[in-house]
Amino acid sequence: MEFTSQYFFKRLRISHILSRFFLFAFFAAALVACSEKVAKLPPIENFDSIAQITSTNTEIIYSDSAKVKMVLKAPMLLKFLEGSNPRTEFPNGVDIVFMDKNKKVTSSLKSEYAEYRDNEQIWYFSGKVVTINEENDILRSEHLYFDRGKDSLRSDTTVTIKFADGNNLSGTGFRSSINFSDTYEFDNIVFTGYIDEK
After folding, report:
1. Quick one: 59 and 100 in the same domain?
2. What is the domain count for the chain?
3. Going residue by residue through the chain (198 aa), what tens digit of pLDDT does each one get?
4. How far apart, in whole angstroms, are the C-alpha atoms of residue 57 and residue 113?
5. Which helix (H) or strand (E) holds 13?
6. pTM to 2 decimals?
7. Whole domain around residue 61: which residue ranges?
8. In sequence order, what are the residues at sequence separation of 6 or more whose Cβ sits closer than 8 angstroms to the Cβ of residue 151?
9. CB of 90 within 8 A of CB of 114?
10. Within its chain, how far is the Cα of 158 from the centroid?
């Protein structure tokens, strides 16, 4: 039997077509087998609970007209960009220093939790909130709000101020400037006077 080149190429073409068919059939079977094992995940409906940016050991410098106004340090930052409530959370607390235009420290603030609400431009602090002004007066509260637009503090819970001279003031409905030394108000004063700490 004599083999011609035409016969040889015809057999090669048939072999090539068969190998392609079997390869396609193999991948189709594998795809079907895998698709049955893959669990379908539900669509994400609430983007408010998913942080798009996460950072640890963070330091943020806030400035206005190239003047540093605030330096924030935090062990963890969670940034939520999506949804109806864009915000930045600091679940392990913050340590903040406020400065004047000459970079002089005017007050400091620490809390166990903090949150900046983008839409309102308001900071919310909670958990053993302590702020100290340049006169060394110490303000303590469990909840405190800082309005960036107004440069003011407020709290609806009890606020206690221990002044550098030893006098104490405690009340609710607190409002003041950021360093609480210029002016401050209470809706209800609970206590004022000196406490013997001996």
Report:
1. yes
2. 2
3. 444 444 444 444 555 454 555 555 555 556 555 545 556 655 555 556 677 888 999 999 988 888 898 999 999 999 988 778 899 999 999 999 988 888 899 899 999 999 999 999 999 999 999 999 999 999 999 999 999 888 889 999 999 999 988 899 999 999 998 877 767 899 998 877 766 655
4. 15
5. helix 5-37
6. 0.71
7. 47-194
8. 177, 178
9. yes
10. 26
